[in-house]
């Protein structure tokens, strides 16, 4: 994630399938004009089809902070 603003940004990543994915870190603070790496891991799921994963969604919530 890239923060092009002059303020700190606090973010949180959410998914519609939290049992299927690991997001690291799920939340953090990004400094002004900085870039932050978020890793998303797909957990091994027996019996899961690709079609069921195509419906999975991710959403990033963020707000500016006065740190």
UniProtKB/TrEMBL annotation:
Please give the InterPro entries that the UniProt record associates with this protein. Answer: Ig-like_fold (IPR013783), MSP_dom (IPR000535), PapD-like_sf (IPR008962), VAP (IPR016763)
MSP domain residues: 1-67
- Broad class of where this protein is predominantly found: membrane
Q: Which Pfam families match?
A: Motile_Sperm
Q: Do you know which PROSITE patterns this protein is assigned to?
A: MSP
Query: Which processes are annotated in GO (biological process)?
Result: endoplasmic reticulum membrane organization; endoplasmic reticulum-plasma membrane tethering
Per the record, membrane topology reads: Single-pass type IV membrane protein
- Subcellular compartments: Membrane
Which protein is depicted? Vesicle-associated membrane-protein-associated protein
Q: Which UniProt keywords apply?
A: Membrane, Transmembrane, Transmembrane helix
User: So what family is this one in?
Assistant: Belongs to the VAMP-associated protein (VAP) (TC 9.B.17) family.
A GO cellular component annotation in the UniProt record? plasma membrane
């Amino acid at each position: 994630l890239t923060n092009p603003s002059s303020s700190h940004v606090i973010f949180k990543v959410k998914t519609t399938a939290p049992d299927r994915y690991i997001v690291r870190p799920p939340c953090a603070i990004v400094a002004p004009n900085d870039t932050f790496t978020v890793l998303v891991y797909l957990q091994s799921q027996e019996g899961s089809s690709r079609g069921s994963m195509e419906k999975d969604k991710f959403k990033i919530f963020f707000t500016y902070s006065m740190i």
